[in-house]
Amino acid sequence: MRRLRRTRALRELVRETDLRPAHLIQPLFVVAGEGVREPVESMPGVERLSISELVSEAGAVLGAGVKAVILFGIPSEKDELALGAYDDEGVVQMAVRALKEAHPDLVVITDVCLCEYTSHGHCGFVREGEVDNDITLELLAKTAISHAEAGADVVAPSDMMDGRVGAIRGQLDEEGHSDVAILAYSAKYASAFYGPFREAAESTPEFGDRRGYQMDPANAAEAVREARLDLEEGADALMVKPAVPYLDIVRRVKDETGAPVAAYHVSGEYSMIKAAAANGWIDERAAVLETLTAIRRAGADIVITYDATRAAGWLAEGD
Ligand code: PBG
């Protein structure tokens, strides 16, 4: 076996998995205000940006060869109805318009969820202490429509309510947005690895947790059922999240559906590598590129990573 491992050129001839900037999606956090570039303490290298900073950051993303961003909004006010989520003048809606105007070719994906906008931090409308599935569907569909009207290419529901893909698809089609795609967070696990994101988005639930709607980490067959349901309801692409602890799920969902699959290398996965690297315990560049390659090898077409732009730069440099 070693004969084909002798030189870089030989290794490249037989390499089974490729990792290119075009496979990556860069998540970006957008906040209200002007001139804001606020570092997220638990995610070194990640900042919350106001709109003009976001537009210039998107220029750097494109410059590195990454073609897509996924946006998360942090509104200035939160309430029980998540009004900011579907406000036409909301932070994400304004950001989408500005991005599309400055960078028409950038693929703009929006995360569709209520947790960043609700005062209690849950992903839906809370009634008698529980997240009400069907009332939440209406608010999610309104949110997706407002993102589509602003110019989003893809909406990505991350709430894990039942029937949300169908509700969003129906509403998009009814309101003349049949060309807007849905990237469904199909297998989103109730994971400890979202901790740093919740600091960035100020979306830690005030009571309880998300286990009543996000998946149990012990389940795999259920992920395939979720994926199939989302496809039946009209999803264009599926997502597995987190990525590395769930590579078996990435493989199963890919093999059993054949649909485009994205894997989300989430905040906690990102921060673990940064923390080890900052301590000199691990080679950051090598660890990041190995991780992203492994996610692709498991079957992901698309990798969502906070390191997208940086990794694209490393890929351009070569070995
Ligand atoms: C919104 C949402 C979350 C993430 C993406 N969309 C947080 C959550 O479910 O608590 C996590 C992303 C990350 O950790 O990087 N529901």
Question: What does this 3D model show about the protein?
Answer:
The protein has a single domain (16-316), classed as TIM Barrel. The chain contains eleven helices and twelve strands. The protein has helices at 8-13, 51-63, 91-102, 133-150, 164-174, 195-201, 221-233, 247-257, 267-278, 284-297, 308-317, and strands spanning 24-31, 37-39, 47-49, 68-74, 107-112, 126-127, 130-131, 154-157, 181-188, 237-241, 261-265, 302-305. The two termini are 22 Å apart. The protein has 319 residues and is of the alpha/beta class. It binds ligand PBG. Residues 111, 113, 115, 123, 158, 194, 197-198, 203, 266-267 line the site of ligand PBG. Ligand PBG binds at residues 111, 113, 115, 123, 158, 194, 197-198, 203, 266-267.
Give the secondary structure arrangement, pairings included:
Layout: H1 8-13, E1 24-31, E2 37-39, E3 47-49, H2 51-63, E4 68-74, H3 91-102, E5 107-112, E6 126-127, E7 130-131, H4 133-150, E8 154-157, H5 164-174, E9 181-188, H6 195-201, H7 221-233, E10 237-241, H8 247-257, E11 261-265, H9 267-278, H10 284-297, E12 302-305, H11 308-317
Parallel strand pairs: 1-3, 1-4, 1-12, 4-5, 5-8, 8-9, 9-10, 10-11, 11-12
Antiparallel strand pairs: 2-3, 6-7
Helix pairs in contact: 2-3, 3-4, 4-5, 7-8
The protein binds ligand PBG.
Ligand PBG binds at residues 111, 113, 115, 123, 158, 194, 197-198, 203, 266-267.
